[in-house]
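Hey, I'm writing a tutorial for new members on how sequence and structure tokens pair up, and I'd like a real worked example in the thread rather than a made-up one. If someone can provide the structure for the chain below, I'll link this post from the tutorial.
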Amino acid sequence: MINKKSFLITIINSFILLCIVVFLFYHLKTEKENSVVYVDNIRLFNDFNMTKDLNQLNRIEINKQKKKIDSLYTLYQIFEENKKETKQKELEILLRKEDQELKKMNDLFSKDVGVKVWNRLNEYLKKYGESNHYTIVIGTQGNGNVMYADSSIDITNSFIQYSNDLYEGNLN
């Protein structure tokens, strides 16, 4: 009688153990399949609302500088037509200075936007990756180290939505 009970308990334990192993194998396999994902860096950067906001603010400053240069150029043309060479030369120097200022503004704004946006996106990506249990999130640009990836592991759209919601204050 003890042999039959012992045998039955062994079979039940074996069955339970087998179920646990199958469950763990399936769970780990499923988890590992989605643990490496990628994001299209270019689309992410361009579609992030912070990028658009900062570019809009910078565009206002750059447009002011362009209008200033246009006004100076108009004055320059008037002085040229009226043969006022002294004033024309002064304006020419000022135009060069303002043009260089415009180039500096473009460079500074471009670098500033890039640094601010990527700092914020990296912060968001860490939070997003942890909450979705990703092991690795790879950034791609279509011409870098990752030359091909299955689109099923592309999280770009969902991460853009998440980032924009977080940036706009719609998520905590």
